[in-house]
UniProtKB/TrEMBL annotation:
It comes from the Bacteria. This is Helix-turn-helix domain-containing protein. InterPro entries: HTH_AraC. It comes from Flavobacterium procerum. Residues 162-259 form the HTH araC/xylS-type domain. PROSITE patterns: HTH_ARAC_FAMILY_2.
Length: 271
């Protein structure tokens, strides 16, 4: 099984908006990679070089292409597992932005969120984006790659006041009823939904379901059993806990935790 190193941002500003990133390199020693990734609330930007990408149902296939290209896409919303298959080694940089992270680097986020997420959503936010990503691929040393990657995103950073949206997110994460959150902030439920769709790419109920699931993964090693885990993460009861896990992973909580290493930054399942 191939091991993937997940890098945390070095820059203190970027740490607030980017969870981390990983690299695949064409020179890596593997024949192919196949793994399953599970729903999360990050906005994931992947940049690949000289590839062909096909997305069908819950599977993404990445194969080498003779055509020279830089293909970048964003994954912002999925509520079932996705199977990722790489036919051969290739160059790829994948960046995990915090739920509101991309809003601080581009004003076009809602344009991407309005597209059909069942298909590959191409991400090309700046005139120099693909050119700069290609330069980073050409760098041989990982430290210099990271330095240039972070310098590039810092050059696009614009501070914004998102205090209201942060309060809404905090209330949803605390498991407050959606109607109560809307009432507290003196907005309609429809407007609350619109705010989430525009700024995060999913509805409040979708966000909360995935947040609860991901928090249970993080908390797994701090509790005695699955019953306690479901209670600590605000599931209504054990059956609700099991249902959400089956929806989001196609597995029961017991099976999921037996197969997945929850201590790793990338919670993937390698068949």
């Amino acid at each position: 099984m191939m091991r993937v190193k997940f890098y945390k941002p070095i820059n203190e500003t970027l740490k607030k908006y980017i969870k981390g990133y990983y690299f695949f390199l064409e020179k890596d020693e593997y024949d192919s990679i196949c793994y399953w990734t599970f729903p999360n609330n990050y906005n994931i930007v992947s940049v690949t070089q000289n590839v062909s990408i096909i997305k069908r149902d819950n599977k993404i296939m990445i194969t080498p292409s003779k055509e020279k290209n830089i293909f970048s896409h964003i994954t912002y919303r999925y509520d079932t597992p996705i199977e990722i298959f790489y036919e051969k080694p290739l160059n790829e940089i994948t960046i995990y932005f915090e739920p509101l992270g991309l809003n601080f680097f581009t004003d076009k986020v809602e344009v991407y969120y309005s597209k059909d997420n069942t298909k590959e959503v191409e991400f090309d936010p700046f005139p120099d984006f693909k050119k700069e990503m290609e330069k980073i691929f050409s760098i041989q040393e990982r430290e210099k790659q990271i330095e240039q990657l972070e310098d590039y995103w810092l050059s696009k950073f614009v501070h914004k006041d998102v205090s209201m949206i942060k309060e809404l997110i905090a209330d949803i994460e605390a498991n407050a009823k959606i109607e109560e959150v809307a009432k507290k902030h003196k907005i309609s439920r429809q407007y609350l939904n619109k705010i989430f769709q525009k700024n995060i790419g999913k509805s409040p109920s979708e966000y909360r379901k995935i947040h609860r699931f991901r928090k249970s993964i993080t908390d797994k090693n701090q509790v005695k059993n699955l019953t306690e885990l479901s209670y600590e993460n605000l599931f209504y009861d054990q059956s609700h806990f099991v249902k959400d896990f089956r929806d989001l992973t196609f597995k029961s909580p017991k099976t999921f935790f037996e197969k997945i290493n929850t201590e790793r930054e990338t919670v993937w399942f390698f068949p």
